[in-house]
Amino acid sequence: MNIIKTEIDGVVIIEPRLFKDDRGYFFESYSEKDFNAQVREIKFVQDNESKSSYGVLRGLHFQKPPYAQSKLVRVIKGAVLDVAVDIRKGSPTFGKHVAVELTEDNHRQFFIPRGFAHGFSVLTPEVIFQYKCDNFYAPQSEGALAWDDPDLGIDWRIPSDKIILSEKDKHHPRLKDAEWLFDYNEQLY
Description:
By secondary structure, this protein is mainly beta. The chain is built from 1 helix and 15 strands; from the N terminus they run ββββαβββββββββββ. The protein has a 6-stranded antiparallel β-sheet, with no helix packed on it. β3 (19-21) and β4 (24-26) form a beta hairpin. It is globular, with a radius of gyration of 16 Å.
């Protein structure tokens, strides 16, 4: 696998080695040994999958400690714009984000460590999105930020009148108004 570093330390894009022939393709979507050697040591404990249609925007979500999660995300069908926002107070990249297009054709994966809010927008008629988490889902630990916070400056690549949100995602605070954020100096994993 090829590891592409981003502007934010710890947030990486992963390109698998793809083997193609007249039958189709094959690639190793995850190897604990390779991930631990090339990205960082981690133990994923839960896999999730969602299906969404064009215009759906999910995010910007995170879980608070002790249930904070790192995520390894990828697209099985369609395309998304995937976004990670640094919400670690004191971080040199606090409030900055990395956005990457994940598609069924590029087979890229995106690793988002603990201490980041995560979201994605659906760019194709339908998407199937999968992700691995290194901690179990805990509803009492949910946190989120406003997807349209102007201070974050995220271009979701969808016209605002086409964006489809859950009722919950319509009412999250801006980063500057968030009551709870991560501390950059605390060990998160």
